[in-house]
Amino acid sequence: MGNCATSGPNEAMVVSGCGYGRPLMVPGGRVWVWPVCQRLQRISLNVMTLNIQSSNVNTLKGVPISCQGVAQVKIQGSSQEMLANACMQFLGKSEREIHDIALETLEGHQRAIMGNMTVEEIYQDRKKFSKIVFEVASLDLVNMGITVVSYTLKDVKDNEGYLQALGKKRTAEVTRDAEIGEAENQRDAGMKKAVAHQEHMKAKYENDTAIAEAKRDFELKKAAYDMEVQTEKAKSQLAYELQSAISKQSIKEAEMQIKVEERSKQIQVQEQEIMRREKELEAQVKKPAEAEKYRLETIAEAEKLKVVLEAEAKAEAIKLKGEAQAFTIEAKAKAEAEQMVKKADAWAKYEEAAIVDMVLQTLPKVAAEVAAPLTSARKITMVSSGKGDIGAAKLTGEVMDVIDKLPGMVEKLTGVNILKSMNVSN
After folding, report:
1. For the chain, what is the domain count?
2. Which of 68, 137, 172, 378 is most exposed, with minimal Cβ within 10 Å?
3. What CA–CA distances, in Å, run from 304 to 294, 313, 379, 382?
4. Tens-digit pLDDT profile for residues 287-345
């Protein structure tokens, strides 16, 4: 029964045998493998670091030096062609064996390039050397399925002191060139300084002359300008004084106008304040007073009307009661008179004196009957029309009027004039 094989992104699987005309290469993935009929092999795709050491290699001019380079290489798994080349070269080998093969190849190319360049070229232009080794090694290793990721020349040295001497020579040359350059610079600086000084003095004299001429022209023009300035200044001063006087007059007029406006505003404010105070007094004093007056007058009028109505009602009641009492008295008196008539008829021998005596004896009883209703009244309200008596005199007068009518009633009933009889007897 078959198995499913897997690999990570840092290795490739190669399946060969039954079912495949050429080996199947799978970089980082999975594949189905039949154990008996098919064979599964793996090849590493890891990056390998190579320390390339080339010792005592004769350069183009026969000077032996040693170079140490560092390279990063790996089997290219993204290209099927390069992966196939790598499988042909390294399948079944360990990563260490692949590392050694690549190292030997790069070391050979490094030595070959060192022999084609001078010490000065290698030492002074390391970037150029690294670029040549990278390009040559890449062309060779790509046929093995290996890609050169990077290459750098790390160190250059020799056992003969050539590089040191080269450095000293170069240092001496640089020092010499620096001294010569400094001397030339000083010479050139001195010459330029002298020329510059000459030019400076020439320019200074020309400048002084120009300054003198300019100063002369300036003084002349300044004098003319001063005259014009003084003239204009005098005119300006007069114009200023005139304008100042006009401005002061305008200011005074404006100030007076402002004062007038302020006074007018003050008067308006005072008038408005007076109106406000009047309205305030009217609202706070006059209106409440008028309202209170109206309220009191209304209450007084109502009380007055109430008193008048009560008085009229009570007067009407008293009047009715008095009329009823008078009718009662009149009826009673009429009955008594009839009785007295009967008595007079019975007592024919009696004269007027006897009748008068009977009336006089009856008169106090009549007065008591008339005054009897007054004794039971709890409150009497008297209304005066402005004429006649008032108070108790008015009440007593009413009683006396009732009694005063009694002689007339007696005379109507009996034909006896009591007053006349009393005068005759007197």
Report:
1. 1
2. 378
3. 15, 14, 18, 13
4. 776 777 778 878 877 777 777 777 777 767 777 776 777 677 777 767 776 776 666 56
